[in-house]
TrEMBL record:
Molecular function in Gene Ontology: 4 iron, 4 sulfur cluster binding; L-lysine 2,3-aminomutase activity; metal ion binding
Organism, scientific name: Anaeromyxobacter dehalogenans (strain ATCC BAA-258 / DSM 21875 / 2CP-1)
Protein name per UniProt: L-lysine 2,3-aminomutase
Catalytic activity line of the entry: L-lysine = (3S)-3,6-diaminohexanoate
Family per similarity comment: Belongs to the radical SAM superfamily. KamA family.
Amino acid sequence: MANLPVMGDVGGVTEELAGGGRTNGEAKAPAVRHEDAPRPVANVLSRFKPGPRSIWAGVPDALWNDWHWQQRERVIRLEQLERVLRVTPEEREAAVKTEAEFHMGITPYYAALMDPEDPTCPIRLQSVPTMGELNILASDLEDPLAEERDMPVPGITHRYPDRVLFYTTHNCPVYCRHCTRKRKVSDPTSAAAKRQIEESLAYIAQHTEIRDVVISGGDPLSLSDDRLDHILGRLRAIPHVEIFRLGTRNLVTLPQRVTDDFVYMLRRHHPVYVNTHFNHPKECTAEAFEAARRLADAGCVIGNQMVLLKGVNDDPAVVKELNHKLLLMRIRPYYIYQCDLARGISHFRTPVEAGIRIIEALRGHTSGLAVPQFVVDAPNGGGKIPVNPEYVVSHEGKRWVLRNFAGKQFEYVEP
Ligand SMILES: *Cc1c(COP(=O)(O)O)cnc(C)c1O
Ligand code: SF4
């Protein structure tokens, strides 16, 4: 997503962030003040604690809550990281050795969620480089999902009959160490230029079978509101495009990005689906809750795509707690992805069995709403393939022997 300028530039707001002219000539809608919206009930809200402030404790709220500030103050260098946490020798070596391959970038908000003393903290594992990234296996693939091969024009992956992936940027507020698009994300030279976006829009307009557009990257919320407004407006002007989805991790890594002005803009383009990427209950803070509340109150339908990561969430109890939290945030768990074969993420990969065990522990044991689909995105462009625990014990003609979540067998005979 789930995957800005230039991560190397200290604190610069990128051209993308700053840029993009309003093209429809409409007057800017008045901001809706969220204080005017009904407040969530206290016993729901009380389950979500504001994220800690760490070394930024003295920063005024107005700055902390300003996503431009969060973007500018990102932790991108080892010296900055050393101020936030006790960096281990291994992390220090990894930060230096991975720099050329995949930048480090962590918003103050997300960095403050890390345990400064514990290198196995799930937030830390997702955002601080480790030596495992340098361990490239023979089975690792440069383009594990063959996204480039199924690319009719640069910027579009068209694999399934009626929907496409549309890459709009290669920037993200936080560079996830497990990113499947490491080959491009964080690399300023591979960013989608205006011309590429035009060509992608032209492709979608020409292909009348496309009814669903997954707007991805990088993270499309790295674009300015005006630029996104323009792209969404152009998509809405294509008669055969029924829905689109914004694939964004900003709810997790930079929830301040979801402003009242932003969601007001989205309301002009409904139906808007948002697919986000929470991986651990620690990410479900009051700030994330507020971002989800604004999107849901604006009428967006939000889904979550978790990536199964060793040491982060390969534990049914963690996933259950995460999914319960997400439902309170009006986010529906949508997919759990098996970690793919991208280079430099082998240390995160679990056996496929781990995903099956998680679904087994959820289905029937808790709300069906909290049970996502576990999928393996097959190498070489096979697409997402669901993998389920086996509930069919045997099947012969009209006679099905099934087992339920508690392991009891039942027979169903087709009339
Ligand atoms: C994941 C993906 C989609 C969307 O798939 P859904 O199952 O509809 O969520 C579309 N195109 C590509 C190339 C994808 O990888
Ligand atoms: S770095 Fe993270 S947010 Fe950005 S595309 Fe990769 S997984 Fe998604």
